[in-house]
Amino acid sequence: MDWLYSLFVEHSALQAVIVLSLISAIGLGLGRVRVCGISLGVTFVFFTGILSGHFGLSIDPQMLNYAESFGLVLFVYALGLQVGPGFFSSFRQGGVQLNLLAIGVVLVGTLLAVLGSYACGISLPDMVGILCGATTNTPALGAAQQTLKQLGLETSTPALGCAVTYPLGVVGVILAILLMRKVMVRKEDLEVKEKENENKTYIAAFQVHNPAIFNMSIKEIGALKNYPKFVISRLWRDGNVSIPTSDKVIKEGDRLLVITSEKNAPALTVLFGEQEHTDWNKEDIDWNAIDSQLISQRIVVTRPELNGKKLGSLHLRNHYGINISRVYRSGVQLLATAELTLQLGDRLTVVGEAASIHNVEKVLGNAIKSLKEPNLVAVFVGIILGLALGAVPISIPGISAPVKLGLAGGPIIVGILIGTFGPRMHMVTYTTRSANLMLRALGLSLYLACLGLDAGAHFFETVFRPEGALWIAVGFALTVIPVLIVGVVAFKWAKVDFGSVTGMLCGSMANPMALNYANDTIPGDNPSVAYATVYPLCMFIRVIIAQVLLMFFLHG
Question: What's the pLDDT score for residue 478?
Answer without folding.
Answer: 95
